[in-house]
Amino acid sequence: MSRILPIIISVVVLAALAVVAFVTIGVLQPKPEQADEKFGGLSVFSEEVTRDDLVFNVQAQGEVRPRREIVVAPQIGGRIAYVSPDFIDGGFIRKGQALVRLEGADYGLAVVRARAGVASAEQRLATERAQSEIAIQDLENLGIADSSPLARREPQLAEAQASLDSAKAQLADAELGLRRTTVTAPFDGRVREENVEVGQFASPGMSLGRIFATDVVEVVLPLTDDQLGQLGLPLAFAESATQKGPEVIFSGNVAGQLRAWNGRITRTSAAVNPQTRLINIIAELKDPYGAGADDGAPMAPGLFVNAQVAGKRIDDLLIAPRSAVRSGNKIFVGDPETSTLRIIEVDLVHSDPTGAWFRSDDVNVGDLALTSPIRGSNDGMTITILQRMEDGTIKNHSREASGLDDDEPEDDEASDEAVELVNTSAEGAQ
Fold it and tell me: Which of 10, 320, 337, 372 is within CB 3.0–4.6 Å of 324 for a Cys-Cys bond?
């Protein structure tokens, strides 16, 4: 027993020392610091909301065509005696200019014969008038008051007058035929094609070529119903002195150089195209070979051009990136003070690749519209709001709003998400 007691005492002393050492270490060990910064949440990119007016610009394409184009054809038949040197493919012609002349000898002889017929009819009418006056005088001398028209030679006088009128009509017809031996241009224009030679026989209505006027050219532009609404045009529109059509800027390549011409919308087609369900509007350019040309380059018929039509204007709208619009009419906005997501329903007016125009009482200029995709989004979720600046740097709005120094290192997870978003955006742009 005397041997075991010292061993027990030693064990108890060692256990007591171990307990004292453990308690001392627990008391003296520093407590871990509690992080004041909360988890930043998903990192998302944003762009500031701006305000501006919305001016619709409708893009369309079409082929240039002359407003007036006709087939040159004689109204009478005959052998061709003259062809104007300007009556060739691409030639410029003037109103009233003689393009083609037919041999007129036969028609000249017809005029001479008709004039002779008029002279004979005039002589006969004069004779009948004299005889009628004598007959009336004789009846008065005989005291006959109820004589017949035949006795007064009234039918004979009417017949002579009708013969004279007929002779004059034949003369006018012969002179008209003689004038029609010359085919003239009805307007200033150009020759599209010519297929006639001197000595060739031309029959009435035979095509001698095609000419078109150069005063105005047209472009038919097919539009959708939405585009027509953006222009503010009714379905049955026609330009008038009090209601001018929208301006149009035409553009196209001529001789390897991009050219531009200024025209305007003058009318819409009478009906909707049943095949395409599109509505054609007609734009015009005046004097395409003169004042309407671009530094001497005309907007010639047959040229395929692009058209930009100035539409209606809507003032004072908010603008956000198109990618900030979700579910049709909802805008995702980041609140840097609370680092939370706000989902706001807006009145979306128009959206295209350049942005989204909308009205809202809950969104202000300078608010941060979120452009990054967010899965499982809900109003009030925690996010880290980033913005790419013009110099390429990335600004952390959530960090600035929390009052942290820019020199402090960011959370590694948030940094990785930001880099991933940058790479994703770059790939999408490519």
Answer: 320
Please check whether residue 91 is in contact with residue 190, taking contact to mean a CB–CB distance below 8 angstroms: yes
CB atoms near residue 355 (< 10 Å): 22
Burial of 379 (0-12, 13-18, 19+ CB in 10 A): exposed
Backbone torsion region of residue 250, taken as left when φ is above 0, otherwise alpha when ψ lies between -120 and 50, otherwise beta:
beta
Please state, as a whole number, how many other Cβ atoms lie within 10 Å of the Cβ of residue 182.
15
Tokens of 340: 């939370």
User: Digits of tens for pLDDT over the chain (430 positions)?
Assistant: 556 766 666 666 666 666 666 666 666 666 655 545 555 578 899 999 999 999 888 999 999 999 999 999 999 999 999 999 999 999 999 999 999 999 999 999 999 999 999 999 999 989 888 888 887 787 777 777 777 777 778 888 888 889 999 999 999 999 999 999 999 999 999 999 999 999 999 999 999 999 999 999 999 999 998 888 888 888 888 998 888 889 999 999 998 899 999 999 999 998 888 888 999 999 999 999 999 999 889 999 999 999 999 888 899 999 999 999 998 889 999 998 888 999 999 999 988 888 999 999 999 999 999 998 888 888 888 888 898 888 888 888 888 776 654 444 444 444 445 445 444 443 443 3
CA distance 407 to 390: 21
CB atoms within 10 A of CB 377: 17
Q: Give me the phi and psi of 207, to 5 degrees please.
A: -75, 125
**In 3D, which of 101, 93, 286 has the Cα closest to residue 187?**
93
Residue 217 and residue 288: Cα distance in Å, rounded? 7
**Domains in the chain: ranges and CATH:** 43-53+315-429 (2.40.420.20), 59-66+218-306 (2.40.30), 76-102+181-214 (2.40.50.100), 104-179 (1.10.287)
At position 106, the amino acid (one-letter code) is D
3-state DSSP assignment of residue 25 = helix
**Closest C-alpha to 337, from 383, 384, 402, 396:** 402
Dist. CA 280–CA 303, nearest whole Å: 18
- What is the chain's percent helix, strand, coil content, to nearest 5? 30, 35, 35
Q: Which two tokens stand for residue 332?
A: 């995702």
Both tokens assigned to 50: 């701006």
Residue with tokens 């087609």: 269
> At which residue do the structure tokens 């009906």 appear?
271
Q: Is the dihedral of CA 175, 178, 184, 186 positive or negative?
A: positive
